[in-house]
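FORM 7B: Structural annotation worksheet

SECTION A. Query
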Amino acid sequence: MLDAYLDVSLSLPNLERIVLTGFMGSGKSTVGRLLAEKLQWQFTDLDTVVEEIAGKSLPAIFAEEGEEAFRAYEHHALASLLIQPRIVLALGGGAPEMVANRDLLTTAEQTLVVLLEAPFEVLLQRCLVQAEDPAATVRPILASHAAAAERFERRVPHYRAVAHEIVLSEALNAEQTVDAIIALLKQST
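SECTION B. Predicted structure
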């Protein structure tokens, strides 16, 4: 089975990066890890790189330096990652809101941006299930359904603006979502 994925990877000489975007709960990190493993590429989570650059956790960045500082770290990290070869990159949910990040994503050569899309209520439910895990990322926005829904509505046009492809993942598990992305890659060869 792995050979089929490697054949896709090897037959895409002009593709160096796959960027996954979407709202929280869309599965960017989980799908990204699986996709990178199957393609034998590197996986990187943008939020993790931001934490490495800042030398502190995301909550600490927001608490100590504010959102503007976080977005500056994020932009710097994104710019540096969009020149890396053979990488699957999971964006943070808010990365495409920033015009400068959208510009980077829409002008990056040899880069395919894939939107993992599902209805808000499906994504919210996934986040609530994830939140039950003590090791899960804390998502304060989940405290207010209305605020989370407003954020989702505000971000969706930005996700769609940067996406080359959209995978409707509402009824798909992570493996099926990877298979859908692989199918898109095969169609473009």
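SECTION C. Observations
Strands lie at 17-21, 42-45, 87-90, 111-117, 165-168. The mean pLDDT is 88.

SECTION D. Sign-off
Analyst initials: ____
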